[in-house]
Amino acid sequence: MAPALLRQPQFRRYWLAQTVSLFGDQVLTLALPLVAVLGTRAGPAEMGYLTAATMLPNLLFPLVVGAWLDRYPRKRRIMVLADLGRAVLLAVVPVAYLCDVLALEQLYVVAFLTGTLAVLFEVAHSTLFVSLVARRHYVDANSLIGSSRALSFVAGPSLGGLLVQVLTAPIALLVDVLSYLLSALFLARIRPTEPAPADPGGGSRGLRAGLGFVVRSRILRATLLGTTTLNLFNYMFHALFVLYASTELNLSPSLLGLAIGAGALGALLGATVTGRLARRLGVGRAVVLGFVLFPAPLLLVPLAGGPTWAVLAALVAAEFLAGLGVMLLDITSGAVQTAVIPEPLLARVTGVKRTINYGIRPVGALLGGTLGSALGVRPTLWIATVGALAGVLWLLPSPIPHLRDLPERER
Fold first, then answer.
1. What whole-number distance in Å separates Cα of residue 70 and Cα of residue 66?
2. Considering Cα of 91, then 96, then 97, then 99, what sign does the dihedral take?
3. pLDDT tens-digit profile of 64-88?
C-alpha cells in the first residue's frame, strides 16, 4: 500500500517535505554544537546551555501552541511559515561567521527560536496528516515517514560530518537552510481539506479539553502512560550507556559508533516491515510487541562481557533489535492514537503528549546519573531496562491488545 500512497500527489509532497527536513535536521544536530565549539570556543557549561536552549521550547510551548492551533483554520500555512522562519534563523549563523561577528549568545537565541518553530511545525503536522491520509492507511503512511526518519539516522550523521569537514560547521548549516526551504516549497503545493477550527474557547478551556480527552480515553491514556514510563527509563539507560560502554566494557569510539549505527539499521528494517506485521498480528498486538521489543534487547548491555568481539556482538544485537522495536512502537502506536483523537482536538492532544514525553526525558537522565553515582552504573542499567519493560503493563488492561484494526475515532 505504501507505493500506492506515493502515487497520490498531495501525500507525496507531504512525504518529500518530511524527508528533506529530517535529513536537514541531522546536519543541524551535528553542525550547531560544532559551531559553538569551534567558532566560539564554548566550554562544557556553555554546551549545556545550548542544549537547554534547544530543548526548552518542548517543555514551555506545546500545550499553549496546541490550544491555539486547534482554533486556527490553516495549519499548513503555519508549517510553511515555521520552515521559512527556521531557514532565516539558521542563515544568520554563516553570515555572522563570514562577517566575523559570531557570538555564543547568537547561537542561544537561534537554538531557542528554531526549537520554538519546531514545536509549531510538529504540533500542526498531526492535523495536516489526517487531512491527507485515509484512516485505513495510517500505518502505511507512518511507515513511509518512519523509513525516511530511519534512513536519515543512517546516512544523516555521515553526510553532516562530511559537510562539516569540507565546508566548516557554520557553512554546513546552509544545507539545513536549503532543506527547510525545500520543505516549505513542497508543503506550499499541498491543497489539503483541513478540518474546521475548534470552538474558540479561552486558552485555559482549550488546555482543559486536551487534557480531559487524554484522561478519559482508555486507549490514549494507556499508550501515554506506557510511553512515559518507557521514556523515563530509556533516558536513564542512555544517560549512562556511552560511559558504561567506554569505561567498563572498554569499547573504542569507533566500535561504539558501529554499535550505535546498528540501531539506525534496525529502525530502517522496522519501518519497512511494520505494515506487514500489523496486518498479520493485528494493530493492537503489534503495539504491544513494540513495547516489549524496544527495551528487551537492551538487557544484553549489562549482560555483555568477555572478549571485545563478544561485547561488540552483544551491543550490536541490542541496538539493532531495539531500533527495530522502537520503529514498530512509534508507527503502530502513532496510528492508533491518531485514529482515536477527534480532529478538532488533534493539536491540543498532540501538545499534551509532546509536553509529557519531552518533559520526562531530562527527569530520566538526571535520575540515571544520580542512581549511577549511588548504586553503580551496571545496577542502574539493570533497573532502567527492567523499568522500561514495565511500560507494557499499562496496555494490558486496556482495549489495545484486542484491536485487530484501527479503533474508531472517540468523542
1. 6
2. positive
3. 888 788 776 677 889 999 999 999 9
Q: Give the count of beta carbons closer than 10 Å to the beta carbon of residue 75.
A: 26
Record the cell numbers describing residue 342, joined without a space.
477527534
CATH architecture of 2-197: Up-down Bundle (1.20)
Nearest C-alpha neighbor of 237 from the set 380, 87, 85: 380
DSSP SS3 for 42: coil
Which long-range CB contacts under 8 A does 12-17 form with residues at least 24 apart?
13/186, 13/187, 13/189, 13/190, 14/128, 14/129, 14/132, 14/186, 14/187, 14/190, 15/144, 15/145, 15/148, 16/182, 16/186, 17/83, 17/182, 17/183, 17/184, 17/186, 17/187
Smallest CA-to-CA distance from 298 within 277, 326, 328, 257 is with: 326
The confidence band for 2, taking pLDDT boundaries of 50, 70 and 90, is low
Sign of the torsion formed by the C-alpha atoms of 363, 364, 369 and 371 = positive
pLDDT tens digits for range 361-401 = 888 888 888 898 889 889 999 999 999 999 999 999 999 99
Instruction: Pick 207-402's CATH classification: 1.20.1250.20, 3.20.20.80, 3.40.630.30, 3.40.50.620.
Output: 1.20.1250.20
Question: Which segments of 35-103 does DSSP mark as H helices, in order?
Answer: 40, 44-60, 62-69, 75-98
In Å, how far from its chain's centre is CA 1? 24
Cell of 373: 553515582
DSSP element (H, E) containing 220: helix 218-243
C-alpha cell at 331: 508507527
Tell me which residue of 153, 189, 374 sits closest to 268, measured CA to CA.
153
Sequence ranges of the domains in the chain? 2-197, 207-402
> Mind listing the pLDDT tens digit for each residue in 174-227?
989 999 999 999 999 988 665 555 554 545 566 677 788 888 899 999 999 999
Asked if the domains 2-197 and 207-402 are classified in one and the same CATH topology, the answer is yes
- For 134, the grid coordinates are 485515509
Residue 277: all three cell numbers together: 506485521
